[in-house]
Amino acid sequence: MNLPNKLTILRVIMVPFFVFFMLTDVGGAANKWIALILFIVASLTDLLDGKIARKYNLVTNFGKFMDPLADKLLVCAAMICLVEMEKLAAWIVIVIISREFIISGFRLVASDSGVVIAASYWGKFKTVFQMAMIILLIADLGGIFDMIGTIFVWIALVLTVVSLLDYVLKNKQVLTQGGM
């Protein structure tokens, strides 16, 4: 297994630890900061795995498939925690998670035809904004950062819809051939 794939697996392994520190008070006030650090490190593995894979020609079908799933797991877990903590509206998370299920379904249909649908530019851009939004909401710094966090929530929501439309339009041929 190559380094980018190991980084993807590391991101998946970090998710339960992140959730633990987000939703428990075992470490007291330090929990929020531990969770934030875990989320930032996990997010950085997303940036690194792709860059390393492309730079050193280590792109694999496993990476194309697992990297977006690891992103979804991390981001969805974080957003569900933020709903539980009443820092993010549930309806926004439902829209975002619905998009993730739809795209995952498209990927499954495409894989039946032997096609791997890699992450798109819009999908990557959406993920970056979602991760930045989550960092701002977890940090909960107050003041202008609350407003910036709110703006990032709305940008992430718009990018979620735009990236969904982008995937559907770019892959409609694969989807219609797959029986959809």
TrEMBL record:
It is a multi-pass membrane protein. It is an enzyme of class 2 (transferase). It is found in: Cell membrane. Pfam families: CDP-OH_P_transf. Keywords: Cell membrane, Lipid biosynthesis, Lipid metabolism, Membrane, Phospholipid biosynthesis, Phospholipid metabolism, Transferase, Transmembrane, Transmembrane helix. One of its GO terms (molecular function) is CDP-diacylglycerol-glycerol-3-phosphate 3-phosphatidyltransferase activity. GO terms for cellular component: plasma membrane. This is CDP-diacylglycerol--glycerol-3-phosphate 3-phosphatidyltransferase. It comes from Faecalicatena contorta. The lineage of its organism: Bacteria, Bacillati, Bacillota, Clostridia, Lachnospirales.
